[in-house]
Each structure stands twice: as structure tokens, then as C-alpha cells.
């Protein structure tokens, strides 16, 4: 108890350094000079992982079951987290499985500056387990409260403007509801629920994430319509029915998030109606494994691309289009050629191991496994 | 001249080398697939322990005016620095823990507590040294540019100073390494040696000044009145770490049996040949768990050179399998006690300080460098032979033993010949002495005789006169 208080007290000043600046950083700088080459954080996070400001961390304080295959994780971020994100943004979360950190992005589901019980500032994400997604299944079924996770700052342009537009349409399916949930909760909290129609599709009633909350919002706010489409019994939501159900859809600022097929259809529909500028789409990376051998490699900062087979190393690929990649031994032993994989998948040619977005890859012994982008 | 033909030297066929390579690959694979929580915990605990030791050491040194506190603090700090250097800095920078995908324990971001910047060391070490291990003219770690560690290198008068240079290098090892790496970095970047304001130079200067300021100014100053003794303690801890790092490195690369290769060897080198070069080019020393840990598991230098990026805590189990392969292919596995391995290196350092004309062996059959020609007049470099009855193979290890035996035989034979020659000489001397004595006696007799004749003559003359 006393220890907890002490901890809170120690963390208190840092709760204000959202931008990681201020006096604390001066102190950090001074201490770092003495502890070189280590930083104060190297010692601090031994005492408490949340005290690291070099890298954002968080502690999972609660795991709430949403549906059979989804859960909400409530996380208490450590030093330096910026709580002033915008509703609809996502964060990166790194979690330790079998000794290895795995990174994924998930939409925040809470409104900005959300304070939980006891005045703690918290964030929440909702995760839906994917059939072969090792990480998401782990998060939904296996992660315990108290687990330390790494966090990447909130980002993304799929956001609700402030103030919200007068007329809004949300089109979501499955876990596509998560960024929209953050927007709805923000509007609710600020008592600014405008004329909002939310069409959400899920196979059955039991699969609807946040079902009770949606109903509650629907009941409490006359200007909010929650339209649930249970696809197992009623089939897919037909975009043509919009004309009949919500004839003013063309005037509504629209946010859509869900499976790629649905988003493609929506995009098409809005384009042919000539209102593409009213549509905001979030295509979140579906958690899946590499799609195959070879693919199109993009060298991020140079913008150069190249299609290669599954046996060509990324290093050779880059060199063949004139991209200057670092290298040394060219045989996988010196780590000179390590580059971050910013999107897509790659495969270690020596053992077939897969590399995910955010991983660092040795380009001399890795090949594209589907389309991928290197951060160089 | 060092090894130019690894197939010939190892008594293996190209196919043998390929299967050996595959077997080594599968060792790698099995470690890779079994890496997990246990290994991650190992490195995290090592890091935590190292930091605790360091903090404890620094804290105790606040009382360093007391003799015992000084000793304790210095010991703690020395151990902390050794662990940081060997098990953490060296191994993390090799990418041994990159698989954890932890940005804080990653080869691209780790900075170590040594004078030189990690990044420069990584280039010099991971690339130059580990790719071109023991290739003359390519691996700059061969003698670190100041010691002549093989008679493949021409002798120059400066080598006479080798014994002193060795001591200096040992005591200031981190500085030696730092300057060495800076040189390689500049060379790789094509920056002239004399230019002192290039980015690598600035990076170097920044790191050096932080390191020096930390150990020799800031921490001593923090301890206030104890600053002098803290300064001494910090210097001692650095010295201890330097000596230990030096000893471990030298035992891993310079004892007899760690072979050297010529540059032609690199032409079209296969993965299997690369493995062989690593295996033959390094040496282990025997260590228990504590010493293994303190050496950053570099007592398993052979395993480290075969698999530089596998987690160090797994080298001991890899070693068992590598030894089995050595037995199977009848290859040497160079190891010995720390003391013995160091003495062998020490002997080479001192021997090679001398010009070649004082040395007996050549670079084909010297203890520190041999080549396939070593076997030429002993046995034909026979390819791996399998005993049809026992299934036992005869290869390099047996050939080396044969070579050693035949060298010994040759030496014995030479000694024998020498002894015989000595005996013969002695006999001749005796004979000549006898002859001399004989001649002397004869001469003496002749002299007596002549004297008698003369006396006789004189007497006769006197007699005539008397008679007249
Ligand atoms: S170039 Fe050496 S590991 Fe890729």
C-alpha cells in the first residue's frame, strides 16, 4: 500500500510529460552523463518497467471479455505516453510470447484522456482473435492482468474531427467497430452526439462487440441510431438499401472500417455516387501470416519497387534497382545489413522463419514473402 | 605459407565438406527453433545482475577511503565491467539476442562500456574479423596490427619490441581495440588516416570523452573526499577488465592449432569450407560454468566462430555436438586449460619477435601456422579413409598425429645420427691422439738417438786428439 503510494508519487511528475520534455528530461540528461553508456532508464525500468521513458510501456490492468473471441485490454501506460490522441487512432502494442516481442497495431477504443477508477489514466484496446493469429489469440485468451507490454505512440488519420460533423454515418463490421467505438464514446463523454447512424455487421448477436453499450447509447441518445446487421440470419448489409433506410447518407460524413471486400465495395459505391470526399476508410492490417514466396519489395524512402521471387535476397533486390543498402558479410553473420521491415512479410532464407512488420531483418539472408516494404 | 587448400589440408573431399556443413547447419537450426522464454530470461537476468553489481560497486566506492571498501568496490566494479564487456556487449552486438525483437537488447542499438563506439567495433569485428577469420591480409585481428603472430608475416625490426608491445596491449586493451576499430572503420569508408575530423573520428571522440569523463572525473567527483581512491578503483577495474578480455581473446585465437589461411582460400569458398575455416582458425579453453560466464562463453570460441549469432548460453550444448562431428570427421578440436592456451600464445609472441633465421620451423610446419605442405613428405595427403572393420575414419587429426609422430621420429633419428657421429668423432680423436703420442715418442727416440750419435762423434774426435 505504502509502496504503491510511493510509486504513484514517483510516477506523478512524469505523467505530465506527454511530450517527453520539461525539467524531468534535464535531470535525465544530467544523470545519463554519469551512467553512460547506459541511460537512467536502463536502471529505472529494472525497478519498474513503467518508468522507462526511452520506450513507451504499459501494464495490462484488466482483461474484459467482449465476445467469445474478443476482449478489451485496459492498459495503464508508463512514462511519456501522450493521452491527447484523437478518437479513431490506433497504437502499436508489443507483447512478449516465448521470449520474443511481437508487435501489432490495434485501435484505441477509449476516449482521449480517459480516467479509470481511482483517477488513473488508462487506455483500452479491443482485440479479436484471428484463426491463425498467434498474438491475437494470446491476447484474448492468455494474457494476464499485470503483464507489461511495450507501446508505440498513437497514430493514424482515421479520426473524428473536433467538433464532430452534424451528420455522421459509421459503417463497420467485425472488429472494424473498434476505432468507431472510440469516436462514439468520445461524443458520448463530451455530450456531443450529433445525428449519427451506425451500421454494424456481425454474424450473430453473440458476435457483436460492445453490443450492450451500443444499445445503451441508442436508448440514451435520440440522435444516435445503432443498426445491427446479423449476417448469419439476415445476410450482408446491402449498400443499395441505404437509399431506403438512410436516404440522406450522401450528406453524411462517413467512416468505414471492416474487411477489405466490404471496404472496396463501399469505396466503389461512394465514388459512383460522387461523394468520395465524404468517405474515410481505415484498412487495418489483418493479422495473418506471410502470403507466399516473393512479391513486390518497396524501398520506403527511395520509393523504388521491384518484384522478386522467393529466393532473391532483399539485399540483392535492392542493389539491382540501385538502392544503397548497408551490408557486410552477405552471409548472415555480421548484422551489418539489418533494416526494419515496415510492412508486409519477409522470410529468413536459412530457416524459413517469418518476419513481421516492425521486425528488423537481415536483408542479406531474407527474401520477400508477399509484398513488403523496407524502411530504407 | 599458411593453408591454401582447405580440402587438402583437412583430408576431406568436397562432398564430405558439404555434408559436414549440412550437419552444422542442422545444429544451428535446432538451436534456433528451441530458442525461447528460458533463453530470454537468461539474458534479462544477466543484464539485471550486471547492473546491480555495477550500482553496488559504485555505491561501495563512496567509502573507498577504507581499505576493505576499496577492495570490495573495485572487485564488484571489475566483475560488472567484465560481464558487461563479454557476456553483454560482445554477444548482444553479435545479434545473439536479436531474435527476441527487443529494441533494448538488440545489436543495432547496444552501446557498451568500452572506449570505442560499439558501432565501429561491430563493423571491424562482426564483419572484418568474423567473415575473414584468420585470412592473412584480410583479418586485421591477426595480431591487431602490432604483433607478429605467424611467420607468414615478414619480420621487421619493430617486432623486437613485441614482448613489451604485448604487455602494453594487455593493459590498455580497450584502447587498442578502439583505435584498431577506428582505423578499420576509416579504411572501410575510404577516409585518409591523417584526417581527424571525419564523422568516425568525431563519433570516436565523443564516445572516448564520455567514457573517460565518467570513470575518471564524474564518479570520483561524486564520491567527494574519497575521489582519489575512487579514481584509483575505477582505473583498477578498467585494468582488470582489460587484462581479462585480452587473455580470453588471445586464448581464443593464438594458441597452437589455430590455423591461418591465405587469401586464395576465399575464392569460391563454400559454406562448408567457411565452417571449416572457422573451426580450424579458433581455439577453446576449458572452463567451468563460472569461468564460461565470465568469458562471455568465449571459452567456446570455436562454437562462437561457427555460429556467432546464436545465444551464448547455448554454446556449451553446441560444443558437445561440434566435438562429436570432429570425432566423426577426424578433425582436431583445439582446446586446453586457460593457462596452457595462454602460454602457447605467449610463446608465439616471444618467439616471433625474432627474425626468421633464428627460427627452426617454417610457416608450413610451425606450431602456430601450418599448411597442407606439412604432410607432403610424410604421407600423401590422403582423403578421409574409413577403416572397413571398425568404421573409424582417418583424417586430419590422425594425419596431424602422424605428422607429429614422424617429426618426432625424424628428430629422434637426427639425434641418433648425431650421437653416432659424436662417437665416431671421439674414436677418431682417440686414434689421432694415440698416433700423436706414437709420433711424439718416435720423435723423442730419434732425438735421443741423434744426440747419442753426436756425443759419440764428439767423443771420437776428442779421442783422436788425445791419441795425437
Ligand atoms: S551482411 Fe552480414 S549479416 Fe547481412
Automatic annotation (TrEMBL), chain A:
Q: Which cofactor does it need?
A: FAD
**Segments forming domain FAD-binding FR-type:** 53-161
Q: Recall the GO molecular function terms of this protein's record.
A: 2 iron, 2 sulfur cluster binding; metal ion binding; oxidoreductase activity
Q: What is this protein called?
A: Stearoyl-CoA 9-desaturase
Signal sequence, start to end: none
Name the UniProt key words of this record, in alphabetical order: 2Fe-2S, FAD, Flavoprotein, Iron, Iron-sulfur, Metal-binding, Oxidoreductase
Q: Which residues form the 2Fe-2S ferredoxin-type domain?
A: 295-376
TrEMBL record, chain B:
Where do the Fatty acid desaturase domain residues begin and end?
69-335
One Pfam match, given by its short name, reads FA_desaturase
Task: Give GO cellular component annotations, separated by semicolons.
Answer: membrane
CDD domains tied to this protein = Delta6-FADS-like (cd03506)
Q: Where is the composition biased (Basic and acidic residues)?
A: 445-459
Xref: InterPro entries: FA_desaturase_dom, Fatty_acid_desaturase
One biological process term from GO is:
lipid biosynthetic process
- Residues annotated as region Disordered? 445-468
Q: Name one GO molecular function term.
A: oxidoreductase activity, acting on paired donors, with oxidation of a pair of donors resulting in the reduction of molecular oxygen to two molecules of water
Q: What domain of life?
A: Bacteria
**This protein's name:** Acyl-CoA desaturase
Protein species of origin: Nocardia mangyaensis
